[in-house]
Specification:
It is a single chain. By secondary structure, the chain is α/β, with parallel strands linked by helices. It has 3 domains: 119 residues, Nucleotidyltransferase, domain 5, CATH 3.30.420; 179 residues, 2-Layer Sandwich (Nucleotidyltransferase, domain 5), CATH 3.30.420; 143 residues, Hypothetical protein af1432 (Orthogonal Bundle). The chain has 22 helices and 15 strands. The strands form 3 sheets. Strands 6, 7, 8, 9, 10, 11 and 12 form a 7-stranded mixed sheet that branches. Helix 10 crosses helix 12, helix 16 runs antiparallel to helix 17 and helix 18 runs antiparallel to helix 19. The protein starts with 9 loop residues before the first helix and ends with a strand.
Length: 513
């Protein structure tokens, strides 16, 4: 067994690729605040967590003042690792990656702890350097966002990592002792002193913060996700998914100041945050406030993807990395939930042809959203007909998708639900309509109307749509049916075609033969 105190180089992770893509893989993350197990359904472009458990051990507490990991925290961590070992065997995990970060890296007794930890979990532990941790966090954002452009910040219990990311290109990162537990330790519990420490250390991050201006700051880490959850509660925000939640920095600054100055127990919806994390909220707010003030980002986006997802992304071959993560997730839902998965693929080609006939341009992002919605069009078919629209919203709005922001998620939910309810503005979920915005709402109505034509032709089965092309001919929306399908062309289908035509300001017809 390799020495647990060795810092693992990037190339070493590429060795020993996952043995079986069709079996679960797991990552155990030994962090400064928590020890967490996440098992995924397999290795792919958009792996879905099938089991997630964390134990708040506080390994990093007082490491900077004592130089050592606390004995009680070590005991909790070793007990958690022993439990995780059994769970991985129960889930028949094909491979387990075990990572350790700042607390084990910085403590004098870190090597002793890692040897005991390897014995407890039965796996080799890979100790990450600060720079390596930053790189994997950035890769996690690459894996979870569509064409990210900005700076990734990963705030754990022991450290803060900042690294630039542009598309799939990851820059050189910087690490600082600005984790929540470390700040609490070094400041002696004084928020004022912690603020001074944050400002002093942030000077090291000048290169990363200078290039943040006008771009997006991607916030990674449990403390920032907890603050975002409280921010959602304060706004009465309708979607509770954290990933892709984006806020205006100006609005965020005022809320961060409230978090810093208010006793955590008095914050709205603080019950959703574990008691062990509540004392760290103010420190997380301090760090994020300084990043916003100095870096002046265009937006702050919350990422549920970090080091763990970055490691899995690194295992993929180049072609798989280039797959759109939203379309990968939607394809899995299509395969699992549609009556005929091939029908979703045919919907993409069928709507492509119609949209190409329209005068108004469709952006690249709108196109990928439409394709995803086509793949999700039949997710609610098993529900009672009266509730298929609601069921579709419930599934899509709360699904573990990545590669989509919240307005895009609202569009997907609306487009599929309007297929069932009708496309009149009054039929739409008004909360999602507001979240999508006027442009995406109009696009959702258009696709909903297209789906309302497609399903009476195909009955949700593959093979029919390629024989029934839809387009704009001589200024009219025209659906063409083969002669042997003449009995399909009754009033119901004609009314659907005309409803679609009204959305684009023309008439509609069904042509047979």
């Amino acid at each position: 067994m390799a020495s647990p105190s060795a810092i693992l180089a990037p190339a070493e992770f590429a060795q020993g690729a996952v043995r079986d893509r069709n079996r679960p893989v797991a990552i155990i993350d030994i962090g400064s605040n928590s020890v967490r197990l996440v098992a995924y359904d397999g290795l792919g472009r958009a792996p879905t967590p099938m089991y997630n458990e964390k134990v708040l051990c506080g390994l990093g507490r007082n490491v900077f003042t004592t130089g050592r990991l606390n004995d009680e925290a070590v005991a909790r961590a070793l007990a958690a690792l022993s439990r995780f070992r059994v769970l991985c065997k129960t889930m028949r995990v094909s491979q387990v990656f075990v990572l350790a970060t700042a607390a084990a890296r910085d403590a004098q007794n870190g090597p002793d702890f890692l040897r005991a930890a390897e014995e407890a979990c039965g796996e080799e532990i890979r100790l990450l350097s600060g720079r390596r941790e930053a790189e994997l966090s950035a890769l996690g954002v690459v894996s979870g966002f569509h064409a990210p452009d900005g700076v990734v910040g990963d705030m754990g219990g022991g450290s803060l990592e900042l690294v630039d990311v542009r598309g799939t290109v990851v820059g050189q990162g910087v690490t600082m002792p600005l984790g929540g537990l470390t700040l609490q330790d070094l400041s002696g519990g004084s928020i004022k002193k912690a603020g001074k420490l944050v400002r002093e250390h942030m000077r090291k991050a000048a290169p990363q913060l200078e290039i943040l201006r006008g771009r997006t700051f991607y916030a990674v880490g449990g403390t920032w996700r907890a603050i975002a959850r409280l921010h959602q509660a304060s706004r009465g925000y309708p979607v509770h998914v954290m990933h892709g939640y984006t806020v205006d920095p100006t609005d965020e600054l005022s809320f961060l100041q409230i978090v810093e100055q208010t006793d955590a127990s008095q914050l709205q919806d603080v019950e959703s945050v574990s008691e062990a994390r509540r004392p760290l909220l103010a420190y997380g707010a301090l760090v994020l406030e300084e990043i916003i003030r100095v870096g002046r980002p265009r937006a702050v986006a919350i990422s549920a993807s970090g080091v763990r997802e970055g490691l899995l992304f690194e295992q993929l071959d180049r072609d798989t990395r280039l797959v759109d993560p939203l379309l990968a997730s939607a394809s899995e839902f299509n395969a699992l939930r549609a009556r005929a998965p091939g029908h979703g693929e045919e919907l993409i080609a069928w709507t492509d042809r119609f949209v190409a006939d329209l005068d108004g341009p469709e952006t690249a992002d709108e196109r990928r959203l439409r394709h995803a919605a086509c793949l999700l069009a039949d997710v609610g078919w098993r529900a009672h007909p009266d509730y298929r629209g609601e069921q579709s919203i419930a599934v899509i709005q709360n699904a573990a998708f990545v590669g989509v922001d919240h307005p895009g998620r609202a569009y997907l939910s609306l487009a599929v639900s309007l297929r069932h309810t009708g496309v009149g503005p009054e039929k739409a979920n008004q909360v999602l309509r507001a979240l999508a915005g006027p442009r995406l709402f109009d696009r959702a109505r258009l696709l909903g109307a297209l789906l309302r034509v497609a399903f009476p032709v195909s009955a949700g089965m593959d093979g029919a749509l390629p024989q029934a092309p839809l387009g704009v001919e001589e200024g009219r929306v025209t659906l063409r049916l083969p002669a042997e399908w003449k009995d399909l062309g009754g009033d119901r289908l004609l009314n659907r075609v005309r409803g679609l035509a009204r959305l684009i300001g023309c008439d509609g017809r069904v042509v047979v033969g």
